[in-house]
Design goal:
CATH architecture of the domain at 163-306: 3 Solenoid
Number of strands: 38
CATH class of the domain at 163-306: Mainly Beta
Strand order of the largest sheet: 8-11-14-17-20-25-28-31-34-37
């Protein structure tokens, strides 16, 4: 028998702000694809190309647009933006089955006497909470997390297991920090003395806004002096590196394996696709969209979409193109 909690379809639709047609009292346990959903799950149609799968779905209900609702063979959860409704529904099912046992009194915790931990916070075993740390209402911290001195974690933030929060890191409210994230490590800073590198100690902070999500194994360096700043509603994917003193504007999203070098400023509502590189000390204005594997080597002063790199082609074609590219300099030197 399933241990999952259920919710009535009518209530689910109300919670996500959707219209509903069908059996409002039917209870469901979760959400799945059209193809795999069972009789106690809902499904969703966000792309018309998957409409054929509606015919055979066994879902109890489907999230769908007004234009496609006549195709549904079951109850419907209707809205103009099915993808947005799908996102909201996933949050409902996530919260429905969360198990938050307060473990603040566990023998496996190391909490400094000067730390202020709200009584509603949930802290897992083998965590260390340093001197002067503030953990606010409703925070959830998984096992084996280290929160170092003078750091602050805002209300309802979730930190998953095995994260490292260095000293003087401020995390806003309702953030999600996935496993393996490191916040506040030193950036790459050295001065050369003869044949030796002299380390520049990083004395700044990391300041993270509200509703920020940071994917697993990403790293955000502290400022060398001053602060590294991540604005509200920024979304960072897995394996992203944000260097010291970088500033990321609110609403910007950064996909996996991208790296932004020191002291660069990225504007609001930008998107940086996977495997991009951004050099240091440049500025990118608001509403810039950078496509996958682009190398940004200079400031971007106008909003729009930017790309670099060579698209996929057959190897023999690529070889010819590479030879032609080397010869481009000859065109400039040719007599007119």
């Amino acid at each position: 028998m399933s241990s999952k909690k259920s919710i009535k379809l009518g209530l689910l639709a109300k919670k996500i702000g959707a219209k509903f047609e069908g059996d409002a009292d039917k209870e469901v346990l979760g959400i799945n694809t059209l193809q795999d959903a069972g009789s106690k799950e809902i499904a969703f149609l966000t792309r018309s190309s998957f409409a054929k799968e509606l015919e055979s779905t066994k879902a109890a209900a489907v999230i769908i647009s007004p234009e496609n609702k006549e195709l549904a063979p079951c109850s419907i959860i209707e809205g103009k933006d099915p993808y947005l409704l799908y996102a909201k529904a996933t949050q409902i099912f996530k919260k429905l089955n969360q198990n938050k046992d307060n473990l603040n009194n566990s023998d496996y915790l190391d909490v400094a006497s000067t730390a202020k931990v709200h009584e509603s916070a949930n802290i897992g075993p083998f965590c260390r909470i340093g001197e002067g740390v503030v953990i606010e209402e409703g925070v959830s911290i998984g096992s084996n997390v280290d929160v170092a001195e003078s750091s602050k974690i805002g209300k309802k933030t979730i930190i998953y297991p095995n994260c490292s929060v260095y000293e003087d890191v401020s995390i806003g409210q309702e953030c999600i920090i996935h496993s393996g994230v490191t916040l506040g490590s030193d950036g790459l800073g050295f001065a050369k003395e003869n044949d030796n590198w002299i380390k520049i100690e990083h004395l700044g902070k990391v300041i993270i806004g509200n509703r920020v999500e940071i994917g697993s194994n990403s790293s955000i360096d502290r400022g060398s002096v001053g602060s590294t700043k991540i604005g509200n509603d920024v979304k960072i994917d897995n394996l992203v590196h944000i260097a010291h003193n970088v500033s990321i504007g609110s609403g910007t999203a950064i996909a996996a394996n991208s790296a932004i070098a020191g002291s660069t400023i990225v504007g609001k509502n930008c998107t940086i696709a996977g495997c991009c590189g951004v050099v240091d000390n440049i500025k990118i204005v608001d509403s810039v969209h950078i496509t996958a594997m682009t190398l940004v080597t200079k400031s971007i002063k106008e909003s729009g979409t930017y790309s670099s790199g060579t698209p996929l082609m057959q190897n023999k074609e690529w070889r010819k193109s590479a030879v032609a590219f080397k010869r481009l300099k000859d065109f400039n030197s040719s007599p007119k």
